[in-house]
Specification:
Jelly Rolls; disordered N terminus; 35% strand; 277 residues
């Protein structure tokens, strides 16, 4: 008799436990964070803050006769270019003497004392072309101002402030052929300085005594404005124009400070890149 009572009590206790557990499972949806826990969030990779960006042609249309400026609405008209695979998405190839994109004169309306031109380029080399290879040209002609960013036949990257005599900065590094290269020029007439960056490293700098003049006639991507044709002979992608110098965060991410990870996981900085003001 005693064994029977103990058995009944045990069965009763187990039944209560099963009912309780069943109730908890049935009501899981009404209890916050029960069943699945929220995973620890991962910190996303930071992206450059586009401070001072006034024009941005990504060349991601992939078709058609227009490249769209997603920042300044200064769309360009394409002439004799080809759509190809770019550094990101699609890009434009400038293989012919008459290959270019023409931009309206409003592209630099917001630019006063500082301009930076930033692009990814894939240069095929000089080949049989007679002149240099233009990335971006705003010259007015006759040494009347404007500037031009280009690759010389010997492979040096150059920027000319187009007065007479011309003042320029020339890279020490040769632009490689058939590989993507990140290039950038910063021109600041407040401190009379021109700086060239190649693959996010300061490569060369020089001084200029001439001002940065606005352009009333538009500009060309990939060819000369007023002189003999000088097509880029390669691919241009992700072209950006800035009206102000990037802050420290920009410099670290998109060029101006060299960030290199060594074998012992330390990061080194190129202090020369910061001394620009």
């Amino acid at each position: 008799m005693k064994k029977t009572k103990k058995y009944l009590m045990l069965v009763s206790t187990l039944s209560c436990l099963l009912i309780t557990v069943g109730s908890c499972i049935a009501n899981t949806n009404s209890i916050p964070n029960v069943g699945t826990q929220t995973p620890t969030p991962t910190i996303p990779t930071p992206k450059p803050i586009e401070k001072g960006l006034v024009d941005y042609w990504s060349f991601d249309e992939g078709t058609g006769d227009t490249v769209h400026d997603s920042v300044g609405a200064n769309n360009g008209q394409i002439n004799s270019c080809r759509w190809v695979t770019g550094h990101q998405g699609t890009a434009l190839e400038f293989p012919y003497m008459d290959s270019y994109v023409i931009l309206p004169s409003t592209f630099d309306n917001k630019i006063t004392h500082f301009v930076a031109i930033d692009a990814w380029i894939y240069w095929y080399g000089h080949g049989s072309f007679p002149y240099s290879h233009i990335i971006f040209d705003t010259r007015r002609g006759g040494f009347a101002g404007g500037y031009v960013f280009f690759v010389w036949p010997d492979g040096t990257l150059r920027f000319y402030n187009d007065f007479k005599p011309e003042q320029h900065v020339i890279s020490t590094t040769i632009i490689p052929t058939n590989i993507w290269t990140h290039v950038r020029i910063e021109f600041n007439d407040r401190i009379n300085k021109m700086q060239l960056f190649i693959n996010d490293k300061l490569d060369a700098s020089d001084t200029t005594s001439y001002p940065l003049l606005s352009n009333d006639y538009g500009a060309l991507i990939g060819n000369n404005v007023y002189y003999e044709p000088a097509p880029f002979n390669g691919i241009i992608d992700e072209l950006k124009i800035y009206k102000s110098q990037p802050n420290l965060y920009n410099l670290f991410l998109i060029g101006g400070i060299t960030n290199e990870t060594s074998d012992n996981s330390t990061i080194t900085f190129n202090a020369k890149s910061l001394i620009v003001w």
